[in-house]
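#structure-requests
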Amino acid sequence: MSGSVTQRAAAERRSAVLRCDKNPTWSDANGTLAARFNCHYSNINWGFKISARLQSVITSNVNESGVSWWRNGKRMPKNAGHVVGRSYHFHGTLKPVKHGDHVQFQDYMTFRVRIGGRPGTGSLVWAADVTAKK
């Protein structure tokens, strides 16, 4: 029974629609993701900024793995990773992407933190599931 419920829930989930040259953003306590379908150049431009709240506890550079992505279920070449300061505006391009493509992409970041006077290691994962539309 739970398998059919899980399958039904997955089928009901819809990917966000990225319209040509529109620039939607999505934010939570960890940061803000922006993405646009640049239909004139057949790509998706994305950017991610770590929130000020999270930046306030990061004590090291951020080690970003590089965005992994899939187009219509096929794994595509990974974006380059970075080791940069906590206030860096992470960004990149996914290509090629055409009208109607279903694109999923995600990133993983690690860094040192100090919370309540105690040091530790933090990590952040963000992900997006979109469909490119003119």
